[in-house]
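Researcher: I need the complex structure. Ligand is flavin-adenine dinucleotide. Inputs:
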Amino acid sequence: MLQAKCRVLANSLICGNFFKLVLQNKSIAAQAKPGQFINIRVDKGQDLLLRRPLSIYLAKDDKLEIIYKVVGRGTDKLAQVKEQEKLDVIGPLGNGYTLTAGKALLVGGGTGIASLVFLAAALKTKFNSVPTVLIGAKSKEDLLCFTALEKIGCAVKAATADGSVGFHGLVTELFREIVAIFSTHPSMVYACGPRPMLRELVRLCRHFRIPCEISLEEHLGCGVGACLGCVVKGAKNEYLRVCKEGPVFKASEVIL
Amino acid sequence: MLQAKCRVLANSLICGNFFKLVLQNKSIAAQAKPGQFINIRVDKGQDLLLRRPLSIYLAKDDKLEIIYKVVGRGTDKLAQVKEQEKLDVIGPLGNGYTLTAGKALLVGGGTGIASLVFLAAALKTKFNSVPTVLIGAKSKEDLLCFTALEKIGCAVKAATADGSVGFHGLVTELFREIVAIFSTHPSMVYACGPRPMLRELVRLCRHFRIPCEISLEEHLGCGVGACLGCVVKGAKNEYLRVCKEGPVFKASEVIL
Amino acid sequence: MDGLSVRIGSLLLKNPVMVASGTFGYGEEYAQLIDLNKLGAIVTKSITLKPRLGNPQPRLWETQGGLLNSIGLQNVGLATFVDEKLPYLQKYDTRIIVSITGESVVEYCQLAQALKKETFDALEVNISCPNVQHTKKGLFAQDKDLSYEIVRKVKRLSRKPVIAKLTPNITDIGIIAKACEKAGAEAIAVVNTFNGLAVDIKTKKPIFSNIVAGLCGPAIKPLALYKVYEVKKAVNIPVIGMGGIMDMNDALEFIITGATSVAVGVGNFVDPKIPLNIIRGLQNYLNSNQYKNIKQIIGSLEC
Amino acid sequence: MDGLSVRIGSLLLKNPVMVASGTFGYGEEYAQLIDLNKLGAIVTKSITLKPRLGNPQPRLWETQGGLLNSIGLQNVGLATFVDEKLPYLQKYDTRIIVSITGESVVEYCQLAQALKKETFDALEVNISCPNVQHTKKGLFAQDKDLSYEIVRKVKRLSRKPVIAKLTPNITDIGIIAKACEKAGAEAIAVVNTFNGLAVDIKTKKPIFSNIVAGLCGPAIKPLALYKVYEVKKAVNIPVIGMGGIMDMNDALEFIITGATSVAVGVGNFVDPKIPLNIIRGLQNYLNSNQYKNIKQIIGSLEC
Ligand SMILES: Cc1cc2nc3c(=O)[nH]c(=O)nc-3n(C[C@H](O)[C@H](O)[C@H](O)COP(=O)(O)OP(=O)(O)OC[C@H]3O[C@@H](n4cnc5c(N)ncnc54)[C@H](O)[C@@H]3O)c2cc1C
Ligand SMILES: Cc1cc2nc3c(=O)[nH]c(=O)nc-3n(C[C@H](O)[C@H](O)[C@H](O)COP(=O)(O)OP(=O)(O)OC[C@H]3O[C@@H](n4cnc5c(N)ncnc54)[C@H](O)[C@@H]3O)c2cc1C
Ligand SMILES: Cc1cc2nc3c(=O)[nH]c(=O)nc-3n(C[C@H](O)[C@H](O)[C@H](O)COP(=O)(O)O)c2cc1C
Ligand SMILES: Cc1cc2nc3c(=O)[nH]c(=O)nc-3n(C[C@H](O)[C@H](O)[C@H](O)COP(=O)(O)O)c2cc1C
Ligand code: FES
Ligand code: FES
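Model: Output:
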């Protein structure tokens, strides 16, 4: 974990309301693991006080890549940042995914897919095996990272709510079908996406008895574990910090 | 007085820390009189709450021109506004200079000269007589509107604190010399500039018994006379509103 | 726009949006910029018996998301108000709420008495102006007995509905609100400005000659909203909410929390169209959410 | 950096800049980002006798220039603090101020008693946490007798310097500050957060399960500064000022107004370097203005 002013190498619209941000910083990139995030100060003034956390999509050499969606004032401000400007970044932060050998299944919804791309690449490097990936989106235009995942060599299947591409329905419905078809269950499910998707997925994994790791989002205060602002209810009825114990949790550790 | 979203036709550095802003709005331009100002909302958000008042430098057809100096957060934000953006403007506001026939002498310091250029042009149009203008600045680089005034036909004399051009010293010292040289005193002095300059000038005019109008600055709240935030002490010990009774006052009306 | 009309005691407003005392002068100043007839009510600058000079400059200071002010109650005084300002306001089809303030209980009574025969819609009793010293210990609105006494006496002397305007600079605003309700106030206006200080680090002097100044604007919105919540819990009369309201969403927060009416203060300086934007916004909100009447939303907060 | 050292009662700080309770955990979290040895002092998250679970989500909400929080005092509890957190902090060359809070006078006493033999530099008695109910009527720090009693008893039980941390949600903070001074407090910390409310207009529910939350950040700076001014007028012991301090100029405003020391709260979230930037800034300020010692500036406000 370190704090650095990172040069913006690129920051541009990729599709729908989604942007890709490329930052330059060797030290953060070198430390980054799949599932970790960085915390960016988007406002140099005091209008928007808090930093904004974004998952690492790719970390290579001196490059850190992020995929984000404009949803409010902070991400809107971020979208206006220009190439060559510098952003104050703290990272990498949090605990990432546990890399385990075996037949992994990755399930991503919305921008949640970003951290899974980093994970897929890492699984391939470490175990020389490519996971299957399910991507959920509202519509064809909102489908992220499909080709990036294919390039890594993953079998990628899409689910869209409007049926404009791939499976017509929710990614959790696709998941249920796929798992039913698989001769053996995946050895591990990794998921990142909206809370309702994760909730249903965790229910299904429990049903099929598949171990599962999920990446959670909360609005953060400090981002480093100091303020206790970002908690999620743990299985022992304690509160766990998304920024520190998470953002990736074993499904069994938390109550969604 | 009206409120309008005005297109920015130009907004660029002219010298030192000074910018020229050109706005498009026929109605405001048509109503504007020398000495009046407009009140600009520089922040669309709520970071910088209040509007910023700026004198009208030129109003012609559908164009409103402003000369401003970057001195704080508001003017800094204004300097970042780009061509074709729109600014929320209220104006024209306040009472301008009284246009009187005769041998006028105009004295401007810093950006104060802006409203005097508008006045010089109006005096020429109305009475077909061009005033003499004294401009004070720190240094050659900060000398504003010299050529614009010459184009109108004014006799223009500069005073710089560092002597880099024109008279070496304060514009009020130059004023004293000029008035001493003049065979007859000017019939009227109009002045706009920093408070210490105005204070000394008013003292001199009183000494020489020359009628004098001065344009004052205060930090404004509403800009329309409603909040009583912008007052200056009047000669009858009452408080006068800079935005309503002013910004131009007869020297005898106010206590500086 | 019938769905927007609200009742403040015996006073019927065509919509719940007012402009707050001291931020809208006596109406004239803004008449060129917006249609005053569209406002729910105009609250005048607080007037005193005699004209008041007010405080020396500076009177305003911007802070993060807020504005400190120390006007010192400069106003034309009762006589000029009645002769010149009130007739102007009477031309408009909106409610006129006259804000009065005094340095003693007697002065409030004299004001109420003198205004008895004039034509306007309600009296707002400002017992919370932070820019003048009321009692040795503080503001009238920091003392429940004095608050009761002033409201009670003004109420007796005046035939108009009486609104008590309270200060947020207090441990328990509910106690004061209750006292005012008991004294016969038709409504409680919450809040006046918060006590604040700014220091010029170059001169090592307070920015304001009066040292203390009043903070308003978006910075205080969450604090003002909580005060509205506390007052609403304490009394059964309508609450007029204000403090940093800049748009329809802000207004809705106050209304849901329990404000029957809301007032825009410093928002008028930022954009004089804010009150009308809020009125239009509320109408659209009612329509698109199938509410017949704004009353269905007032105080609908589910705790 | 000798010119920066200040004395808080019997406690000597190498410089006047602390990090505020609850915004810096138990120090570990920020140790990777800044050199803790450079800080004047670290105030720990308030600890209670038993571990506390804290409030459900959400616990944070951004407002204009501010942050509402409702953590609900989640903390590891006394035992774990002493076993795990304190030893970590003891490794650093900075002052450790342990913040304690309880639901009753007895709990404060038990905490003071239990901490007596531990190694740290001062106790901060947080009698002002807005996220827990203290008495039926409100917070301990809203009651001068209870404030007196708690500080007095803690002081008697503990050999450490005692700092009383007060709430700004009060009519006259001076009264409480005086009571704490009389009870033996070595210093007064001003302020804890301001009571605020935020409403979700879609669900018509308060954002926070606890309804009320505490506002901090630049939005409250002028209000906090005024409270420091009030406390400084009331007592002769040092004041520790906080509330929206984000840079050296903010710190100077507090110091000039009378704060012997300042604390950075939410500023740590915005930029963990803020405390160190302020320390460096103050040193430069002293040098370039030919001050030998920061004490020449403390309370130098000319009114
Ligand atoms: C570990 C982590 C990784 C993330 N990775 C990514 C990523 O890779 N890509 C991506 O696009 N996004 C990611 N996010 C989400 C991203 O941080 C948010 O979308 C962003 O911070 C929103 O900022 P904003 O200012 O644009 O929106 P805001 O205006 O702050 O908020 C948007 C919405 O959230 C609500 N909200 C605000 N505060 C709170 C609160 N305290 N509690 C609950 N709701 C609140 C608002 O009401 C609003 O509806 C991640 C979040 C976390 C915690
Ligand atoms: C009628 C009128 C006409 C003007 N015409 C021009 C013009 O033509 N060109 C031009 O360049 N400028 C003009 N000004 C001045 C201009 O409005 C200010 O320079 C501008 O508003 C500063 O805004 P800012 O945010 O950049 O600076 P700010 O950051 O607001 O302030 C700059 C300085 O002023 C101090 N300050 C802030 N608030 C107050 C207050 N309430 N009282 C006293 N001091 C305060 C600050 O401490 C700081 O030192 C005019 C002002 C008026 C009233
Ligand atoms: C410049 C100014 C002058 C004010 N004068 C008065 C006044 O005379 N009487 C009064 O009751 N309130 C006065 N107020 C307080 C406002 O009516 C209102 O209560 C406060 O500003 C909070 O609302 P806001 O945040 O929307 O501005 C004044 C406020 C400002 C900014
Ligand atoms: C997330 C958070 C948690 C806090 N927890 C505590 C606490 O446990 N004890 C305490 O005395 N103050 C606590 N505070 C208050 C701060 O110490 C400080 O008094 C307040 O935030 C004002 O300073 P600021 O505006 O610089 O943040 C907390 C503040 C925040 C933001
Ligand atoms: S954001 Fe502060 S603990 Fe997680
Ligand atoms: S700025 Fe409001 S009266 Fe002049």
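Model: Summary of the prediction. Chain D is about 30% helix and 20% strand.
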